[in-house]
Amino acid sequence: MKYKEFSLNDAETIKRYLSFNQIRLCDYSFSNLFCWGESYNIKWKIHDDLLLIYDKKDDYHLFPVGRKITSEELLKISDMEISVTGSGNFFMVQEDFINENKEFLNKYFQIELNKDYSDYIYLSKSLSELKGKRLHKKRNLISQFKRNHPKYIVKEISPELYRECIELNDYWCKFHSSCGTEDLNDENTAIRKAFNNFSELGFSGLAILEDKKVLAFSVYDTLTEDTALVHFEKSLIECKGAAQIINHEIAKEISKKFRFIDRETDMGIEGLRKAKRSYEPDHMSLSYFLNRK
Asked: Which residues contact 119 (CB under 8 A, 6 or more apart)?
């Protein structure tokens, strides 16, 4: 089978393979692969009952999923893909596989921890309750928001809010120095694809509104049986506490169904790293590179 683009028509097939491994890393999500696939030229194929995914932009393969794989099999796939794509390297390789096969892998691959693309995993109950001294600033900002916006409402994202959420994202972008860069252009493309295919992708979300104006929104779906993945979360820059209250409200919603929340990676961006750490993650889902020697 040749590599092909991600399509909604293939969603069930791909999700079946992804769900086998139950990996808590955000790239192992059909909705992420679909929304970001165009920007990163990500394609897929089935080989020997395994889902192979190739990111041409970064020139890496995701770890093959769909059944248990040995280190010897991974080496054979690496050899095969060198002749097919020119790359025999892998990223987003989970920690368990590295630890179980380190001696063999060290013979053929350079193993490197990928801190910038390891996922932040939180207990949904903790984010929904915000207990403890370390989270008191979050509680204070939420209280301040409620005082300043006494008529705000929390509303489930539905089709009539899609356009307003996209417009809020565009407005948010204008306040960032990186607006117009390749990374934010890619994110804007992904957000538009998400809202244009919201129900088909199985997304859920909440918005904070005041006088029918969207002040913040958050979008999530299922990553594993016990983990929800928050894909996009935006708020008005000038609206103090909006970021904290949407984070809190989405956590309360998610905690009804999931034990964990994956809030994705910090991509090596210091401000994003500081913000994610400030919410006291339960643990990091570590990701590794495997580069052929």
From this structure: 24, 25, 26, 262, 263, 264, 265, 284, 285, 287
What's the CA gap between 6 and 154, in Å, rounded?
33
Helix (H, G, I), strand (E, B) or coil at 268: coil
Show me where the domains of the chain are located: 4-118, 120-264
* Superfamily of chain region 120-264: Gcn5-related N-acetyltransferase (GNAT) (3.40.630.30)
> What number does CATH give the domain 4-118?
3.40.630.30
Tell me the C-alpha distance between 285 and 95, whole Å. 8
Is residue 174's pLDDT more than 90? no
Q: Model confidence over 15-29: pLDDT tens digits? A: 999 999 999 999 999
DSSP string for residues in 192-221: HHHHHTTTTTT-EEEEEEETTEEEEEEEEE
pTM above 0.90, yes or no: yes
For residue 94, what are the β-bridge partners?
287
pLDDT band of residue 178 (cuts 50, 70, 90) is low
d(CA 214, CA 239): 11
| Domain 120-264 in the same topology as domain 4-118 | yes
CB 34 within 8 A of CB 196: no
